[in-house]
Design brief:
This protein is an alpha+beta fold. The protein is 27% helix and 34% strand. It has 3 helices and 7 strands. It has helices spanning 15-32, 91-107, 121-125, and strands spanning 4-9, 48-53, 59-66, 75-82, 112-117, 130-138, 141-148. The chain has a 7-stranded mixed β-sheet, with helices on both faces. Strand 3 and strand 4 (75-82) form a beta hairpin. The longest helix is centred in the N-terminal third of the chain and has 18 residues, at 15-32.
């Protein structure tokens, strides 16, 4: 399967792109993971938004690239999500590698920190992320911080 992508700062997103991103985030983080939380946390304004589309131009994966000081002292990648339609088909790997590459282009060769859901640690280790610190609960889901140096 092949994918195309766009990456834009918040103010450059079209209304449709923003709607698609927020819909996918809600589908997975709120509905699928049964987690009641306010996804719109005011960080979106400062971020670049990476949208990954399938061959039919349907949004299938998303991540936001966060500048240093917004979520962590380091730059970070957050709200990493893929549609259940493409899990196991490489979309997540494409998305994370693109996010890393774009973050490095935007911010230079700096460490990147993520707050990973615990079940996904092995996935992020593929890209060189290393777990750091203790497991913590975020909205009822176990997480751990990971750093890519």
């Amino acid at each position: 399967m092949s994918y195309t992508h766009i990456c834009k700062p918040f103010n450059d997103l079209t209304v449709t792109e923003l709607y698609q991103a927020l819909k996918l985030r809600s589908e997975i983080f709120v509905v699928e993971q049964n987690c009641v939380f306010l996804d719109q946390d005011d960080k979106d304004y400062a971020c670049h938004h990476l949208l990954l589309f399938d061959e039919e131009q349907e949004l299938v994966a998303y991540a936001r690239i966060v500048p240093a000081g917004k979520s962590y002292p380091e730059a970070s990648i957050g709200r990493i999500v893929s549609s259940s339609k493409v899990r196991g088909k490489g979309a997540g790997k494409v998305l994370v590698q693109l996010a890393i590459d774009i973050a490095k282009k935007l911010y230079g060769d700096v460490p990147l920190r993520i707050g990973a859901q615990l079940y996904a640690v092995k996935f992020y280790e593929i890209f060189g992320f290393k777990a750091e610190g203790d497991v913590y609960d975020e909205d009822g889901i176990d997480h751990i911080e990971m750093v890519l140096v």
